[in-house]
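WARN retry 2 of 3 for item q-0093 after timeout on previous attempt; input resubmitted unchanged.
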Amino acid sequence: MLHQWGVFGFSNTELIMKTYIEFGAPEPDMSYVKFAKKSGYKTIVIDFQEYDFMDEEYYKLLVDETYLNYWSDPLDIPLADSWVCFSSLEHTPYSDVHKEVEAIVSKVSGPGEIGIDLTDHSGGFTHVEFPENFQGYPSTGLYLNGINYRQWIDIISEYFTFDRIDEMACIEGKWSPVEKKNEDGTLTSGKRNISKDQVGHINFKNCEVKE
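OK item q-0093 returned
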């Protein structure tokens, strides 16, 4: 019998170890990779940048293999039976986005999730008004490609099917889930009507590679 938990599926009688991949550095609580490890998956992280926390003992216990590479680099690894890509694609150079999404497609065989932070990573949207300040050093030191909500839907839809998009609004630096889509095109979050331009985070759930 196949059991499901989020993007994970495993069988009590499965003899071959399944593989879980995080495209980009794990979230701070490492909840997804932690669950994958406890569920018996081989755990892999792929990120071009090395972080100090990768030397921590808890990281080494949870992650079997770390590759300091771009996702599009050729790697001798199993296809991912489950996977996530959180808060990474918005940092991908604009000209490389399709190449790196295609790289994810080439390295997975099962369902996954894609999460994208649409804010300036400080609770606002100043990168929309001043994109030149978010092109990396020497300004803020932070690169954001500036791709918006509707553009991300077009990009992800080109390569994946998905069940739904979970949305979080960022209003005055505070996060709240989007509870309702209204007939006039606005959204309701925390009893306030907002535009799609105020959606701060989107999560494409149960992504499957298109046939």
